[in-house]
Write a structure and sequence with these properties.
Blueprint lengths: L7 H13 L2 E5 L6 H17 L4 E5 L17 E2 L1 H6 L8 E5 L9 H6 L3 E6 L11 E4 L6 H9 L10 H15 L9 H11 L5 H10 L3 H12 L2 E3 L4 E6 L1 H6 L10 H6 L6 E9 L2 E8 L5 H8 L3 E3 L3 E6 L3 H18 L2
Parallel strand pairs: 1-2, 1-4, 2-3, 4-5, 5-6, 8-9
Antiparallel strand pairs: 7-8, 9-10, 10-12, 11-12
Helix pairs in contact: 2-5, 2-6, 5-6, 6-7, 6-8
The structure holds manganese (II) ion (MN).
Manganese (II) ion binds next to loops.
Length: 341
């Protein structure tokens, strides 16, 4: 059960800091996903509502993917360039990082480092040495937005659950649970979703626009990536690659890889699905999904220090050409699969 009672000391510290803070930074790792953007927008909303004199800014290293631009307040999300162009001062009293550690926040990490009070709110089970001032991590939460929701209902915030706030929280829930399919789905998360639906927001639109809809180029990119999929270990491993050339060919963007690994994974007989995404000539994002026999979080951490996630869904960042990465990861994955029987 996700409860704020474990966090009494943190809540007190948060209340004390917010009482004197004037400017707040909110960020999240890498490219926004449904949970990280939902969590950031919800947090901004509850801070603004409870502390109307605060100035709250969301700044991410990468541009907000178009699929999230329909969300209420999406226009308030900055990248460093647009923040500078708006002539906002780069000085904050408090900074929040949500849905992952600050190490993966790119250029915004430096801003966060320079802020006196550093808050970390997450649901990933990761160990980290970063000297956060206030840390609220609960791996039992299905999504960071579930944690944010509970925080919003404490006496510190008492946030009004309006349709706008509800859709931010809801998007995080459906994104991280894969529409309440993944094993991280809890009865509590579903009860929370039911509560949110009562506000009357268009949940069909949030699910379809925020998660399922694709551009035509993105659809063709998916078809190509799935068409090139190969199997190993009698079909227990399925894998494919997505290169920068393919992105250019289909006029697609990095966010368009969303959902491809799920199709690979949902192929009959597959134990582990692997998608290698070429970020640059020497940089590869590895995504992994497992039925459960192979703990892919452990596997990803063994690949590199920049690896981690959940036991059934994990990722890693490798500094090598994509072909080399594919060979190396597949060889290790085959060895893991052989251990399972
Ligand atoms: Mn999450």
């Amino acid at each position: 059960m996700v409860a704020m009672t474990h966090f009494q000391d943190e809540l007190n510290a948060l209340g004390k800091a917010l009482a004197t803070a004037k400017r707040i930074l909110i960020t999240a790792p890498g490219a926004a996903d449904g949970d990280s953007i939902g969590a950031q927008l919800a947090l901004q909303r509850m801070l603004n509502q409870a502390f109307p004199n605060l100035q709250v800014f969301i700044v991410n290293d990468e541009e907000l993917p178009p699929r999230y631009q329909f969300l209420p307040d999406a226009e308030t999300v900055f990248i460093p360039e647009t923040f500078a162009r708006a002539q906002h001062e780069r000085k904050f009293d408090m900074a929040f990082v949500v849905d992952g550690g600050i190490d993966r926040a790119g250029r915004v990490k430096h801003w966060y480092d320079q802020t006196p009070i550093k808050v970390f709110i997450d649901h990933h089970a990761v160990s980290c040495d970063y000297p956060y001032t206030i840390r609220m991590v609960d791996p039992k939460a299905s999504a960071t937005t579930e944690l944010i929701y509970h925080l919003s209902q404490t006496s510190l915030f008492k946030t009004r659950i309006d349709p706008q706030f509800a859709q931010h929280i809801y998007l995080g829930l459906v994104f991280d649970t894969g529409f309440f399919r993944h094993s991280n789905t809890t009865a509590e998360a579903m009860v929370l979703a039911a509560e949110l639906l009562k506000t009357g927001f268009d949940f069909t639109r949030v699910g379809e626009r925020g998660m399922l809809e694709r551009s035509l180029g993105s659809l063709r990119l998916m078809a190509d990536t799935l068409g090139q999929a190969k199997t190993r270990e009698q079909g227990k491993i399925i894998w494919s690659v997505l290169t920068q050339d393919m992105l250019r060919k289909y006029d697609a963007i990095p966010d368009d890889r969303e959902g491809i690994i799920d199709h690979l994974f949902l192929t009959h007989g597959v134990e582990v699905a692997l998608l290698l995404f070429e970020l640059g000539p020497q940089q590869v994002k590895v995504s992994l999904r497992s039925q459960g026999k192979v703990d892919v979080a452990r596997f990803a951490r063994a690949l590199t220090v920049r690896g981690g996630g959940h036991s059934k869904a994990a990722g890693a960042l490798l500094e090598m050409p994509i072909q080399e990465a594919a060979e190396s990861v597949l060889e290790k994955l085959s060895a893991e699969i052989k251990k399972t029987h």
